[in-house]
Amino acid sequence: MTLEHLDVAKQEVRKNEYMSAEISERALGIKLTLPDFNQVDPLNLKLVALDLDGTTLRDDKTFSPRLIAVVKKLQRKGIAFAICSGRAPESVQRFSDVLGLNSGHGYCVCFNGGALINLSDIKKDLYSNTINATDLIDIEAQARLHDCVIHAYSTRRLLLTESNIKFTEMEIASSMQPFEKLHFPDEVNQDEQAYKLIAVGDKEKLDEMRQSLPQVFFERFNIARTHPNFLEFMHKDCSKGATLVHLCQILGITMEQIVSFGDAENDIEMVEMAGVGVAVANAMPTLLVKARYTTYTYIDDGVAIYLEELFSSLLQAE
To answer: How many Å apart are CA 81 and CA 274, to the nearest integer?
Structure first.
């Protein structure tokens, strides 16, 4: 087994294809809803948790100038920010730099909650929650039954892959990590630990796989659809919301003092658990039914507009 990288040309193509989101007609009709300020005091909110793909990143994988501006203004007012993503730390760091997150006090929930890091040392996990070699082998066997493949984020900070189909290459390109090809189950190290595993393939095949999983899999894992071509498996107690609880302990705040934004099933827990949990209009229906508040789509700068409205009194004082 050897470490590999995509060639430069393919890296750029696949990076821009990663986690592209579609906007439905229904999404265009969803409006911005704010909390009742008699019940929720914006001045008591201390942390904003931001998902990336499908929530804040535009199709070209950049933030809008409007979002960058409001994030920096709120930081000057003492509001902290944490990126909460399925991505790896190496990938998240470049986005945090654009937002001006302080590397000494900037935190990131990575791998859908598999790791909590401080952006000043992205190789060190402040907290982690992983799955093991047996888990990897069992999930791969289910994926193979439905003509899907898997890749997994090893705690050795590389991607374990079976074969590099288009969707796996998209993950490789976005992660900014090397990958290691191996044959399942024979070449899986019995001591292997992974932050998360992703089954990848055609939408219909992943639908079939999820519907056919033995019931025990739903007891063993937190399973989330993050994209039509990605079905993700984490430890049963692992989620962005659960790892945000650990960040709250570090910062000395509560989940009620968090504002969170998301678009997919891997955002459900952090949107449900936050004091102000917001789904963008293009969010998956499974998240929209759980979110207490909504905002416009990522294309329409929904997160930036929501932050401007929610913290209007704070921003006007600048």
So the answer is: 14
